[in-house]
Write a structure and sequence with these properties.
It is built from ten helices and eleven strands. The chain is of the alpha/beta class and 281 residues long.
C-alpha cells in the first residue's frame, strides 16, 4: 500500500471510528509504512512471527505481538501496558488500538504473498480466502469487559481496509476463561462476524474437551506440554473433527520432529523464527 493510500486509510479510520481518534494512529516513515498507535504517552507498534507448515517450513500465517515504548524511547512491556489498564474501558481501548495497528501493519504490507497468495487456499489451515491469515491474541480480561457483540468493532476496521474477516484468527486464552457458557457465546459472536477462532489447551484431556465442547477452528498446543506420543494420538483422534492443530513455542529440534511426525497443521517458535517487524516468508 502506498504511503498516501495508507495515510488516507488512517484518516478514514479516525473519521468513521472516533473511538480511535485520540489514539493518534500515524505512519512512521515513508518507506517502511509502519503504523504506530499512541496511548497516554506510550507508543505501540507491531512485530510478527510466522506460523509454518511443519513438513516444508512454508509460512501459512503470521501472529502479531505488540511492542511498546515511552516518549523517551524506553521499552515498555506489553504485559505492563495491559496491566496498567485499570478499568474496563481503558482495556477495551488498548486492545482495539493494538489490533488496529497490527491489521494496518500487516495488510498494508507490500509483500504480495501476504496481500494475495493464490496458493493460500491449498495450505493446511486455510479458510479458502486468498492471502495468508493474521493471528491476533485476545486478552482474557477483555472477554469479561465486553459483555457481547465481540468482533463487531474490529469487523468495521477490516471493512475499511477491504480485508475479509476470514483472514483473521482470534486466539483466545481459554485457561483464563472459566465460564464455558460465556466462552461459547464469545466464540459464536466472533464467528458471526466471519472470524476464525483458536483456543489453547493445557493437556490432552483439556484438548479433547475443548475440541468436543467448543469445536474451534484451531487448537493451540504448547510444544513442551505435549510429548511426541501424546501429540500423535491427539492429532489422530481429532482428525475427523475438522479441528486444525497448531503447536507453538517450538524451541528444540525434537519438538519440531514430533510435530512433523504427528501431522499437525501449523508450528511456530524461536527454533524457526524470531518475532520481527519485517514479515518473514
Amino acid at each position: 500500500m502506498a504511503a498516501v493510500a495508507l495515510e488516507r486509510t488512517l484518516a478514514e479510520i479516525n473519521r468513521v471510528l472516533p473511538e480511535l481518534t485520540r489514539l493518534q494512529l500515524m505512519a512512521r516513515g515513508q518507506k517502511s509504512q509502519r503504523v504506530v498507535g499512541k496511548l497516554h504517552g506510550t507508543y505501540v507498534s507491531s512485530v510478527f512471527q510466522p506460523w509454518r507448515r511443519p513438513q516444508d517450513n512454508v509460512a501459512v500465517a503470521h501472529e502479531a505481538f505488540a511492542r511498546s515504548h515511552s516518549k523517551n524511547g524506553q521499552d515498555v512491556s506489553p504485559w505492563e501496558l495491559f496491566a496498567e489498564a485499570e478499568v474496563d474501558h481503558q482495556l477495551v481501548t488498548l486492545d482495539r488500538l493494538c489490533r488496529t495497528v497490527h491489521a494496518l501493519n500487516y495488510f498494508a504490507s507490500d509483500d504480495p504473498g501476504i496481500r494475495e497468495s493464490p496458493q493460500s487456499s491449498e495450505l493446511p489451515g486455510s479458510s479458502g480466502v486468498p492471502g495468508l491469515p493474521l493471528v491476533l491474541n485476545v486478552d482474557a480480561r477483555l472477554l469479561q469487559a465486553v459483555p457481547d457483540r465481540h468482533g463487531e468493532f474490529f469487523g468495521k476496521v477490516l471493512a475499511l481496509l477491504g480485508v475479509a474477516p476470514e483472514r483473521i484468527v482470534i486466539d483466545i486464552r481459554t485457561a483464563q476463561t472459566f465460564d464455558l457458557t460465556r466462552l461459547r457465546r464469545v466464540i459464536a459472536n466472533y464467528r458471526a462476524h466471519g472470524f476464525q477462532v483458536a483456543v489453547n489447551a493445557e493437556g490432552v484431556i483439556h484438548a479433547r474437551s475443548l475440541a468436543n465442547l467448543l469445536a474451534p477452528d484451531f487448537l493451540m498446543l504448547e510444544a513442551d506440554v505435549f510429548p511426541a506420543a501424546a501429540l500423535a494420538t491427539l492429532t489422530a483422534t481429532l482428525a475427523q473433527n475438522e479441528v486444525r492443530i497448531a503447536v507453538k513455542h517450538v524451541e528444540r529440534p525434537d519438538q519440531l520432529d514430533a510435530a512433523r511426525a504427528a501431522g499437525v497443521h501449523w508450528v511456530k517458535g524461536y527454533l524457526l523464527d524470531q518475532p520481527s517487524p519485517v514479515l518473514a516468508n
